[in-house]
Amino acid sequence: MRLATLSVPGRTAAALDFGTHYRLTPFRDVAALLREVDGDLTRVADLEVDDTVPCEEAVLAPTVLTPSKIICLGLNYADHILEMGHGGEQYPTLFAKFPATLTGPFDNIEIPSSSNAVDWEVELGVVIGKRARNVMATKGRDHIAGFVVANDVSMRDFQRRTSQFLQGKIFERTTPIGPEMVTPDEVDYALDLKISCSVDGIEMQSSRTSHMITTVAESISYISQIVTLEPGDLILTGTPSGVGAGRTPPVFLSNDQVVTSYIEGIGELVNRFVSEK
Prior knowledge:
Elements: E1 2-8, E2 11-17, E3 21-24, H1 30-37, E4 52-54, E5 70-74, H2 78-83, E6 93-97, E7 102-103, E8 109-111, E9 118-119, E10 122-128, E11 144-151, E12 154-155, H3 156-159, E13 175-182, E14 194-199, E15 202-208, H4 216-224, E16 234-236, E17 257-263, E18 267-275
Parallel strand pairs: 5-16, 7-13, 8-18
Antiparallel strand pairs: 1-2, 1-13, 2-3, 3-4, 5-6, 9-12, 10-11, 10-16, 11-13, 14-15, 14-17, 17-18
């Protein structure tokens, strides 16, 4: 099953992908839909139908607009740890984002005038389906509604001002996600998918989700010991090597460059970066 959030006149709406058309639901986004059905996607077929939109006419918004929380893993691929000059940590590195950071899978992204170091970071995004608190790692999969492609666009100059990552990660409308949420059965729980990122058609990052240090199930288990994960919440699982900040010399994004973020079986994001007016 594939679900998306569409921009339609005057609102956004969660929708089911039927291949030729989307079936709209009354809910603002996929997160709101998941809260309504308490993560039980077998109930989606019983939802009221608002309307349909042909796929070729659909305007895709961020798949989730209203997560109660966005939790991100940093330094979750060994090759990325090496390129960034960090040591291995005993526990996962966590930081948070806010819903205002999210943007659509094909939206333009502004390069803020305050930053000279805007970087790309393709990541697997996990959408929570069922409430999770103190979950065992062996049960982590049970709480996954589906997967999205994400790019944790980072302002490295702000990120490096302190030992905390947050300020380089929360610029508004800089984290594209989508294009749809793909349920686990379609991609074997994303255990071993190609993940890549290109800039202006040149591949910068290429890895597989099987190379993550902390798996998706382990991430859900670990985070759920700290905070309750609710339906519609979003976890970003870290990026592999190949980011701009890890190059010699560093390479950062400039006006009119196009970043394509891809995960096998899930889809791709295509975002043009434009200088802030």
